[in-house]
Design goal:
The protein is an alpha+beta fold. It has one domain: Sandwich (Immunoglobulin-like). 14% of the residues lie in helices and 34% in strands. The chain is built from 2 helices and 8 strands. The strands form 2 sheets. Strands 2, 3, 5, 6 and 7 form a 5-stranded antiparallel sheet that branches. It has a 3-stranded mixed sheet with strand order 4-1-8, with no helix packed on it. It starts with a helix and ends in a 6-residue tail after the last strand.
Length: 146
């Protein structure tokens, strides 16, 4: 009997002092000022250093494709663990799931979290684009047409 009571007390103490299950969070990404309502907005989430740029979308953590209404789009990623993330957006005007280019530059709008411009001296990378997620969060990503 003592063994059973001792086991119950031990289990109760462990339940109280054990770290709680990791919490998860929601991240909402908002995109405004799209030049038209053609196609979709592809919103890609990254969680590892070195994962962007990712022109062929092979290194992403999660991806969402959302419609455009009145020049705006929004996507919510749910149940994300605490961590560092970066976002890439593509105004995929022909809904083919890839970045269409002219000779070098994209024909469609692109953007990254924490970036307001992109160029040869301001190339996207995870370190600059990343942000910490420790609570539910909403971010705006600027779409850039080149």
């Amino acid at each position: 009997m003592k063994t059973i009571i001792l086991a119950i007390i031990s289990a109760s103490i462990l339940a109280v002092i054990s770290p709680s299950k990791d919490e998860s969070y929601n991240l909402t990404v908002e995109v405004e000022n799209l030049r038209n309502s053609k196609g979709t907005v592809q919103i890609t989430l990254y969680n590892k250093d070195g994962s962007i740029p990712d022109e062929h979308y092979k290194n992403h953590f999660k991806m969402g494709k959302v419609s455009i209404t009145n020049g705006k789009s929004q996507c919510t990623f749910s149940n994300l663990p605490k961590g560092n993330y970066a976002v890439n957006i593509l105004h995929d005007e022909n809904s083919n799931g890839k970045i269409d280019k002219g000779l070098i530059l994209p024909k469609e709008g692109i953007g990254f979290s924490n970036y307001t411009s992109i160029g040869l001296t301001n190339r996207p990378n995870f370190k600059k684009a990343s942000f910490e997620l420790t609570q539910n969060k909403t971010i705006k990503v600027k779409v850039i047409y080149m």
